[in-house]
């Protein structure tokens, strides 16, 4: 299953609302997770089951969608949110990731 | 909470076998609530799933690597390992191990990669 994220990169300011989309090549129900990765670090789980916030993740992060179209929203971008974000499908094998969306400072 | 740590050589010669171990602490690798996964990331590129193993030994591999990959589990040492044979420069990457939680929800069991090792850079070069 191929996952296509858009945009591939974006520039935003602190306080902005940011939305990243992930489209699956076939329906994956709610078997989608979102990860945040900072340079030199391992990915960090943000959202699983498309919309469930992982424990300890700030509530400004939210996920939505089902089937083939999903979104990750950051309601008010904070300085520590500048990173690359990946979606991942977990409905079948091989597990696949989107190509990533880099969120940069405007 | 779980902690995972990769270990192994940082430099491997072309055509040889890459071998890495992931040590799990803070929980049992024999738990029925987890699969154990390997993921890699070439420098400056995205994430590629390599494969996973369950405590009973059942494995899943990425078809793109299946002919060269072996993932094993060592329950007595709370470790799992990765072997990738016949490596080339294209296998140069940061290799991560991760726990794949089988989270039970109302709608069913939903997997997710909840804990990751810090990653280890493996360079393939003569």
The DSSP helix count of chain B reads 0
Q: What portion of residues of chain A belong to β-strands?
A: over 45%
- Beginning-to-end CA distance, first to last residue of chain B: 39 Å
Mean pLDDT score of chain B: 97
- Could you tell me the number of beta strands of chain B? 11
Largest sheet of chain B: 7 strands, mixed
What is the CA-based Rg of chain A, rounded? 13 Å
Number of helices of chain A: 0
Order of helices and strands of chain B: EEEEEEEEEEE
What form of chain A results from the Cα inertia axes?
A: globular
State the oligomer: heterodimer
Poorly predicted runs of chain A are none
* Beta fraction of chain B: over 45%
What does the main sheet of chain A amount to? 7 strands, mixed
Question: Could you explain the architecture of this structure?
Answer:
The complex is a heterodimer of chains A (106) and B (126). Chain A has 106 residues and is an all-beta fold. Helix content of chain A is 0%, strand content 50%. Chain A has strands at 3-6, 9-12, 18-24, 32-37, 44-48, 52-53, 61-66, 69-74, 84-89, 96-97, 101-105. In chain A, a hairpin with a 2-residue loop joins strand 7 and strand 8 (69-74). The radius of gyration of chain A is 13 Å and the shape is globular. The model of chain A has no long low-confidence stretch (mean pLDDT 97). Chain B is mostly beta strands and 126 residues long. Chain B has strands at 3-7, 11-12, 18-25, 34-41, 48-54, 59-61, 69-74, 79-84, 93-105, 108-116, 120-124. The chains are: A mainly beta (106), B mainly beta (126). The A-B interface holds A 30-31, 33, 35, 41-45, 48-49, 52, 54, 86, 88, 90, 93-100 and B 37, 46-49, 52, 60-64, 96, 98, 100, 103, 105, 107, 110-114, 116-119.
